[in-house]
Design a protein that fits this description.
- By secondary structure, the protein is of the alpha+beta class.
- It folds into two domains: 1-30; 31-161, RlpA-like domain (Barwin-like endoglucanases, Beta Barrel).
- It is built from two helices and seven strands.
- The protein has a six-stranded mixed barrel.
- A hairpin with a 2-residue loop joins strand 3 and strand 4.
- The longest helix has 27 residues, at 2-28.
């Protein structure tokens, strides 16, 4: 009887340890800090804002992005300032999306750069809703200053938080 109780307790502890490890890996993100080494070129520093062409009062853009994809508020994506298009690999219709490492407010995330736009002065990037919520969960700030955006070399990144 004592052996069965010990085995049950041991099994429960193992299950708890596994669930804690899985939860920790999900909150840390899917990437290691080594992604910083893959950043190519000089980083661009400026302000970031959010865009969503499906919200009332949207001034520019539309549901299609410069890459030809439809805007999706649930993925990790962003629009880079039009004058930075070349620095971020072109961002053109039908081409593979480009990726960037974005750092702000002590957080890092890899985003797919699938759009460009004539952003307001001082702004270098417009996040979609999911990306903005990563940096500003309540969406109360509107604009995030001192955002560092570094182009990533290669075409096959998995967007999301960097752990």
């Amino acid at each position: 009887m004592l052996f069965r109780s010990s085995a049950a307790i041991c099994g429960a502890l193992v299950a708890l340890a596994v669930s804690v490890a899985v939860a920790r890996s999900e909150t840390r993100g899917v990437h290691s800090n080594a992604v910083v080494d893959a950043a190519s070129g000089d980083a661009v520093v400026g302000a970031a804002s959010m865009y969503n062409p499906f919200k009332p009062g949207k001034e520019e853009g539309g549901p299609s992005t410069a890459s030809g994809e439809r805007y999706d508020p649930s993925v990790w994506a962003a629009a880079i300032k039009t004058s930075l298009r070349r620095k971020f690999g072109g961002v053109q219709f039908g081409a593979r999306p480009k990726y960037a490492l974005v750092e702000a407010v002590g957080k890092k995330v890899i985003v797919k750069i699938n759009d460009v736009g004539p952003l307001r002065p001082g702004r270098i990037i417009d996040f979609n809703e999911r990306t903005m919520r990563h940096f500003d969960p309540s969406l109360e700030l509107g604009v995030i200053g001192d955002v560092r955006v570094s182009p990533l070399s290669g075409d096959y990144w998995t967007p999301g938080p960097v752990g």
